[in-house]
């Protein structure tokens, strides 16, 4: 057996062993999105599980929804991970944005809410999150 083939075989077996030790974890995130103190319908909300974020290990997209006519959303996601999952949501919106621009606001789900429900209650889009991005392309 060539060294390259042996290396690939060992890598596959190592990854399989890690997968066996991984365990299923879940989280539910819900809330109501507000723009200028008014409920914001049809806003895109995505639940992710944070990984290295590289091309080789991108964040896992667990669920996605659009807010209903009352601005409410509810997301559920589960993931097999070796270590504790790191869930977060991204909200894509145009609240107070310049014409042609879209804001993406990121919110981390507290570790204490893994295995349960994180009720964000009201998410005010005019307030900046820890990680806000603006795309005006």
From TrEMBL:
<keyword id="KW-0732">Signal</keyword>
<dbReference type="InterPro" id="IPR001534">
    <property type="entry name" value="Transthyretin-like"/>
</dbReference>
<feature type="signal peptide">
    <location>
        <begin position="1"/>
        <end position="22"/>
    </location>
</feature>
<dbReference type="GO" id="GO:0005576">
    <property type="term" value="C:extracellular region"/>
</dbReference>
<dbReference type="Pfam" id="PF01060">
    <property type="entry name" value="TTR-52"/>
</dbReference>
<dbReference type="InterPro" id="IPR038479">
    <property type="entry name" value="Transthyretin-like_sf"/>
</dbReference>
<keyword id="KW-0964">Secreted</keyword>
<comment type="similarity">
    <text>Belongs to the nematode transthyretin-like family.</text>
</comment>
<protein>
    <recommendedName>
        <fullName>Transthyretin-like family protein</fullName>
    </recommendedName>
</protein>
<dbReference type="GO" id="GO:0009986">
    <property type="term" value="C:cell surface"/>
</dbReference>
């Amino acid at each position: 057996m060539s060294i390259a083939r042996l290396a690939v075989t060992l890598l596959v077996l190592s990854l399989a062993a890690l997968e066996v030790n991984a365990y299923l974890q879940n989280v539910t995130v819900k809330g109501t999105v507000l723009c200028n103190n008014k409920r914001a319908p049809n806003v895109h909300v995505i639940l992710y599980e944070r990984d290295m974020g590289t091309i080789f290990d991108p964040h896992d997209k667990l669920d996605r929804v659009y807010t209903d006519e009352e601005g409410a959303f509810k997301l559920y996601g589960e993931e097999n991970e070796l270590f504790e999952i790191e869930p977060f949501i991204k909200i894509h919106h145009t609240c107070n944005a310049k014409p042609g621009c879209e804001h993406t606001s990121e919110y981390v789900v507290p570790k204490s809410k893994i295995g349960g429900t994180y009720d964000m209650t009201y998410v005010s889009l005019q307030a900046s999150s820890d990680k806000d991005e603006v795309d005006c392309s």
